[in-house]
Amino acid sequence: MSKMWVTMGPQHPFSHGLWTLKVQVDGEVIQDAEPVIGYLHRGWEKECENRTYPQIIPMADRLCYSASMTWSHLYCKVAEEAMEIEVPERAQYIRVIADEICRIQSHLMWLAAMGTDLGNLTIFLWALREREWFLDLNVKLCGQRLTTNFPRIGGVRNDMPYLFERDLMRVVDLFEKRLWDIIALTDDNAIFMSRMQGVGHVTRKEAANLGLTGPSMRGCGVNFDVRRDDPYMVYDELDWEVAVCDDGDSYGRYKVRIEEMFQSCEIIRQAVAKMPDGPTRVKAPRNVPEGTHVARLEDPRGESLMYLVSDGTDRPYRLKVRSPIFVNVSASKRLVQGGRMADVPAIMGTIDMCLGETDR
Amino acid sequence: MAPISNWVTFANPMDNPLYQFGAVYNLPYDVGYKIWQLLGGLIAWLLDVLVPGNGVSLWLVGNAVSNALALVLMIIVVFAVCFIVNLTMIWIERKVLGRLMDRRATRIGPLGYLQCLGDGLKTFLKEHIVPDKADTKGYMWAVSIIIGSSVLVAGMIPLSYRFFLADYGSGLLIIFGLFSIAPFMILVAGWSQNNKYALLGGMRAAAQMISYEVPMLVVFASVALMAGSFNINEIVGYQNDNVWFIVPQIIGFVVFMIAATAEAERIPFDLPEAEAELVEGWQTEYGGMKWGLIMLSDYFRGYVACALGAIMFLGGWTLPFVDDSFLPEIVFLLKVILLFFIMVWTRGTLCRIRTDQILNIGWKILLPLAVLNLFVVVVLKVGGLV
Amino acid sequence: MAMKYLDKYPKNNSRHLWVLKSFYTTFKQIIKTTRHRPVTIMYPYEKEWIPDYYRGRPGLVFDKCVGCGICERICPTTCIEMVEVDDAKAGKVVRPQVNVGRCMMCGYCAEYCPTKAMITTPEYELAAYTREGLIFDPYQLAYEGHNEEMQVHMHEHLLSDLQKGITDNPVNASLVDRPALDDAKCIGCSRCAKECPVGAVEMIVVGENDKGKPIKRPKFDEAKCIACEKCVMICPKDALALKEVL
């Protein structure tokens, strides 16, 4: 068989959304690849220019359905910087808890998708079963499962409801036990290990050059986490570790994400213990003074960034989103080259694709 | 006018001089014979009432016609049993997988048993579509042969010493030969669909077949060597007289189960239809009832794999220390279902493995193990221990 | 703080069992779900528990609504439209009508409603046969058995309060923001008084002009005002502006 181009996508089981990976295969071995994105372009940034500042928060939820909390948090963060508002301390703790709930459920969604990518539906359903608890926590916290619309400019939508801490502690304790059950299907499974180890290998230097972010970057040994190195909210007051793994292959990226779930549980536990009483929301002005502002935060998928240009009115002049997946998917050529056709889901699965925020 | 009892006699089929199976009683033939005696006898009686003394009535209940139609009805009976066993296995697979994944499984009918029939009806109602650029002959013939050979080989499996289509000396070899027709046709099907995913799936099927037929054949050889025959009846009888082959040939059993899983294209070896990277693999362009029958034939092949395992290693329809005259067919099917449960359990637990790994496992692990098993058998045989 | 998984994993002995631990785990699950029910919820027959404050479709408490139109303006998807309806008690009134097909269930209408007439109902099964069926008029928006939990309250604090150390004075934009009059621009047309949905604007005579006609100026009743900005928007000479209190 001579070399042929196979167009995987835009509707393809491995792609987790609408994007295309054109691969040139020589038999089963991939010689060349080219990612094509843009099938899900919704004009998000332009839409935001026609909306007032509070109206953009529910829009930011729609950037990525499984990281809605962090995206709306990031938007609120950049708007607060522009308005020079200090968020009350209790609201900061609640935001940290909400972000970590979002991180865990996003990673569980990734784990589920990883299971189907490797042909095991059990991992998929078990991970989604555990994820349901965190979605229930979201319902209890703010009344919706996925599109939370919870952070507000200057705080959060509402205080934690009655007995929410108790539910949170129960879920976190139980989840830490149940996650080992899923790990028994993945790590303790020689076939899963053989699929993940050694594929999509990227060295530390290459990862820096490609601009990988988030768990994909930390899985290559780059010790960087916005939560620790550019602390926002109250992350610097909590005692936790950045998960870093030197492997650089799919398995390294997998390990980093699993460890991050455990660390998130720990962050939630400490945040609940340390939470002060007090107000949760500051009244935000309607108009934003002129200026340009940048804010970044650690998304479940990596370092996400928003750039806001305000012209003194109640609507942004420009709102630019830098999505972590946009840079990670650009690295897909380097990642899949030299691998096999069957490695493509195993590699691109660990990138944790989300096309809503990539194409915007 | 003769009374009806003269026409519907329910005679012993073995009294028929044209009886095909020698001195062995054949249950499905008997059932077919009895059905024909009832149906044909009634027709003959009616004709005789209408036109007394005609020759057609006598011809209808005569030896030649009875034998021929009993054979046809016997095939239908064997297929019906096979089909019902298959539906049960699909039901078991869906139920066990559901329980394993902590979800409800099939819901239609009592305990969800009729879900497969509902799914079959749904696929049956779909449109018949042949891709424009596909090679129509290859496209249709390949899938026909895949389905046909799978059903044929499932029908060839004897359920007991009295429930069989044919009893012949080279039983295992014929079944094995028919069993490995389908992977060839998968290659043809993948080629003829004019689809890159299907082509890759077909190529993978070919690679997989080459690496799994060989250890499987070696295991067949060691079983036949130990029993001293390829005849299924004799293999089962030998195991009943001495010991189930799973005891001396535990390596062979493991190798056979792995190779049979690969042969039946079930997870972890369902590379030709790996839905993550190749959309549906070699079945990408098949739709409607063609696809439904392909899925059904997958289960027929899974049934054949489990049945061969039960025949070769678990003593077929016999039970040790127990009177085995008690419904041998049920005993055999229970063993088949036990093996199938292991296959389902494996499917729920493991991930799909990669193309190069499947070749590695086939050539570097399974083939040496199969040869080791053969060596053990030879030593035991030469040493006179078995 | 130590790593829980990355530290434990290298010592994990079950890795040497090839795939046996996975088989053991799944078998445990089969036994468990055979003895008990699986976790699946059989959706149309049994439903998941949701709290009263679940953000389903918007609801309206008709009698509390004053028709101020804040919900119409804050709605990010512009699915709310103020329509005139005939009410038995009050005659012709303006009330919100929601296109649920466009609604993104953000709950802003309930959150910003000054009288808490808009609520978030826990109703989420909204399928209809036609697109017109998805447009809920003010009477359809009513929700049987609404309670306090379905209201969304903004417990905002003023930044100035927090700087002074006052943390127990939650406010709301409709409680503190008030329209302010630029006296030089006002022509006394009294459109604001007609437009005000709560009757908080009263035109009072402040003097006479040189032709002998009375000069009218709006006077705002601070207790009644809900900061809906209707007067600000209707003002033909931009004499009114909303003064934000921060």
Give the topology.
The complex is a heterotrimer of chains A (360), B (386) and C (246).
Chain A (H helix, E strand, L loop, with lengths): L3 E5 L11 E7 L2 E8 L7 H5 L7 H6 L6 H16 L5 H29 L3 H22 L8 E2 L2 E2 L7 H23 L3 H7 L7 H7 L4 H4 L7 H4 L20 H25 L16 E9 L2 E9 L5 E7 L1 H7 L1 H5 L6 H9 L3 H5 L1
Antiparallel strand pairs in A: 1-2, 2-3, 4-5, 6-7, 7-8
Chain B lengths: L3 H4 L19 H24 L4 H6 L2 H38 L14 H10 L11 H21 L14 H9 L1 H12 L3 H32 L4 H10 L8 H14 L24 H26 L14 H22 L5 H29 L3
Helix pairs in contact in B: 2-4, 4-12, 4-13, 5-12, 6-7, 6-8, 6-12, 8-9, 9-11, 9-14, 11-12, 11-14, 12-13
Chain C lengths: L19 H16 L22 E3 L9 H5 L5 E8 L3 E9 L8 H5 L5 E3 L14 E2 L22 H6 L8 H4 L1 E4 L9 H5 L5 E8 L5 E7 L9 H5 L5 E4 L3
Antiparallel strand pairs in C: 1-4, 2-3, 3-5, 6-9, 7-8
Can you tell me about this structure?
The complex is a heterotrimer of chains A (360), B (386) and C (246). With 360 residues, chain A is of the alpha+beta class. Chain A has a single domain, classed as Cytochrome-c3 Hydrogenase, chain B (Orthogonal Bundle), CATH 1.10.645.10. Chain A contains 15 helices and eight strands. Chain A has a three-stranded antiparallel beta sheet with strand order 1-2-3. A three-stranded antiparallel beta sheet of chain A has the order 6-7-8. Chain A is globular and about 65 Å long. The mean pLDDT of chain B is 85. Chain B is globular. Chain B has two domains: 72 residues, no CATH class; 251 residues, no CATH class. With 386 residues, chain B is mostly helical. Chain B is built from 14 helices and no strands. The longest helix of chain B has 38 residues. Chain C is of the alpha+beta class and 246 residues long. In chain C, the strands form four sheets. A three-stranded antiparallel beta sheet of chain C has the order 2-3-5. Chain C has a two-stranded antiparallel ribbon with strand order 1-4. The radius of gyration of chain C is 28 Å and the shape is elongated. The two termini of chain C are 41 Å apart. Classes of the chains: A alpha+beta (360), B mainly alpha (386), C alpha+beta (246). Chains in contact: A-B, A-C, B-C.
